[in-house]
Structure formats: C-alpha cells, structure tokens
Amino acid sequence: MYPRARPEARATSRPVQGNPPPGPKDRVARCVIGVNHSNNRAEKEFPMRRLMIVTLATLSLLVGPAAWADDGGPLRSIDISGQGEVSVPPDMATVTLGVRVEAETEAATMDEASARTAAVLEGLAAKGVAAADVQSGSIRLTPRYGQNLLGGTDYSNIVGFTATNTITAKIRDINAVGEVLSATVGDGANMVQGIRFGLQDEDSVRDEARRRAVAEAMRLAALYADAAGMELGTVVRITDGSISDGGGYGAMAAPVMEMASSRSAPQMAVPVAPGEITIYSSISMVFELSEAN
Q1: How far apart are CA 222 and CA 61, in angstroms?
Q2: Is 122 left (phi over 0), alpha (psi -120 to 50) or beta?
Q3: What is the mean pLDDT of the chain?
Q4: Quick one: 91-199+254-272 is in which CATH superfamily?
Q5: Which of 18, 183, 238, 281 could bond 209 through an S-S bridge, CB–CB 3.0 to 4.6 Å?
Q6: Does the predicted model carry a pTM greater than 0.70?
C-alpha cells in the first residue's frame, strides 16, 4: 500500500452560505492576502530594505558634516597637547595635632582633655597663629573595657574612658613650623597626625603652569607642521586639561604619634624639610594647517 498523499489546501471562491458572492473588492483583498502569505521573499526583502535605510541614516548622523575651510575645501588641522609645570618652595604649612587623655570617669576625662586643648589653643595664639587659621576637628569620648578570663574584651566591664580632641592649624610662617610644633607639645598636645605644605597664593603659580603648557603646545605644533611641510595657521580650539599638584603639596599621610600623658616641653624645635611644590597643567590646542609658501 502506498501512503496516502495529503490533500492540498486550496483557496476557493465558493461563497459561504448566507453571504453574498464576492465582489471585485473582495477578490482584490483576497489576492493581496494571498501574496502576503505565499511570497516569503517579499517578506524577507522589505524588512532588510528598512534596516538598510535606518542603518544609513544612523551612519550619516554619527559621521556628521565635515569641517570645511573658507575656500570650500576640507579643513586641515593639527591637534596637539602641551604640558607645563612650575616648582616653587612652599610658604605655609597646615599641621594636624591633638590631645588624648585617659581617666576613670567621663567627667574627669573630658575635663583633662578640655584643659589641655585650651592650653594648646592659647599657645598657638601666642606664636602668632591667627584664630581664623585654627579649626577644631574630631572630639571623641569612648569607654575602655576590661578583659574576661579568656583574654577577650568584656563589654560589661567599663574600666575608664578615653577622650581625643584634634586641631588643624595653618602656619603661614614656614620658618616657624618646627618651633610651633614643639611649643604645642609643651602646652599639652600629645598627638601629631601630619603636616601638609602649601602656597598662600596658588593662583599665580597655577597661571604660570598654564602659560607654559600653552607655549609647549604651540612649540610642538610649529615643529610638526614644519616637519610635514605645512604652514601653521590660527588657533581653532583650546581645551584646558586637568591641573594636578605634585611634590609635597597635598595631604601627606603620616602615622599618628602619641606621647605620654604627662606634659613635657621639648628643648629644641622639630626639624622640618619643606622641599618644593610642583604644579602641573595640561592643555589641548587645535591649529589650522595650510600649504607652505
């Protein structure tokens, strides 16, 4: 026995019972429907054409119009970057110091820390540090716990308290930094948390770094244009890059130095080496290029 062939599904124009026979418009509609269902090639081509149109439109938006010179031709240009730096000795320093006290009760701990802090503030004023250049930092009071039989922390057993008070001071006389640090230790400070050197007039140094960056960019642009046999034209665009500080400028993390609670005045000034501060500037410039005469 041969397998039976499947009957083909054929479109028919037989009118459905109860409906009027198809007119010309219905025949046209059925013809269109038939094309949509049977012509797979048309279904594949039309989306591909739409995709090509969208892709070309997107590409034209990404590329954008080209830059043109005054004579109607494309603009020839060179994009160059320049670096500038200035190194100068600092003329001020910012020091962070503080007081750390331990006692059995909250009141005794805070009173001792407050008395030491007040003495440090008075000493800074006596050394010529302006009140506007002194600022309090963190003020903390924390309990101290005992230990259990296993050597761990027994949080149920408070054996005393610790108070800390930090101060940040700007010393505008760079030659007096070591002397001021020694005086504050004698006044009651037992923590020195770091020193940061700076400039009282940063803008003038930054501007000089910018000028040097522009000069370097112009020098390199002229060099490259000459090597390529071109004539360097006018400046089209200038972009200011980031400015960074180097050398000793910026916070220099230093370990916290803690001294004994009993006051003792150092017999000599703390040696301080300011070094130099280096400020960097970067610039990006675009120049027109033309044929050399």
Answers
A1: 34
A2: alpha
A3: 77
A4: Protein of unknown function (DUF541), domain 2 (3.30.70.2970)
A5: 281
A6: no
